[in-house]
Model the fold of this input.
Amino acid sequence: MKRHLLSAADLTRDDAELVLTTAAELRSLADRPIKKLPALRGRTVVNLFFEDSTRTRISFEAAAKRLSADVINFAAKGSSLSKGESLKDTALTLEAMGADAVVIRHSASGAPHRLAHSGWVRSSVVNAGDGTHEHPTQALLDAFTLWRHLGESKPSGLEGRRVAIVGDVLHSRVARSNALLLQTLGVDVTLVGPPTLLPVGVESWGVDTSYDLDAVLPKVDAVMMLRVQRERMQGGFFPTPREYSRRYGLDGRRMATLQDHTIVMHPGPMVRGMEITADVADSDRSVIVEQVTNGVAVRMAVLYLLLGGSENPE
Done:
């Protein structure tokens, strides 16, 4: 792997499969009474979050601690950042503290790239979500979840599988990273949503697109629902929430049209009743809670490999 993980495009197929197979070994820790390895003892991981987060921040913290790393959680609220301190000065502070890895989430697209290539820090930088750009570790944990349910003995078993990503693709960094990574792994991806919520130039992504959810659902092996990010919208992207749910929400009627093996995914947080109904979110087809568990294992694998771990963490 490269020194940083900034984009799903940074990962070759071999890189992605190495992360997934390493995560598979590390996931077994979740079932042990003592969930720790000494692999990163003496290393320091800083979680630098300029945006609110629950799952991602806690997941990275749990991942680092299970590898015995020292963890510093640095939130913008309540820090000098709220007083106007620049990203550069914050980075220099982290460098002075001896950070080995910086996990950054930022509202500005490109902020992790700026940090990684500025020369301000010598540590590895992991993009935990930047604006509407990317969220590569979410794509990795989604691919890992797909592999556990749909693949064979190796991640290459995902070749030829079909995944639909449904909803607010325009504002979704998860959709962008998944489109890149799943194609790298040989998965056929279809983006589904109203025309107003599909990005300009989406045809250059190399994926299929559709405005008709009902036509796509019976053909896919997994359906990934996305939250409508109202906080990033300044205009009317659809008539009403009720109309959006009618056209693009996953409910029990639509779930009944899925193939027997098809799984339902969501990166969270969910808005129950909007893009997904409660009966679908809580159904046997749903792997949404499992995605959270898998996220810890995948982020352990990423930190382990970036900070110089061998291919066999055991």
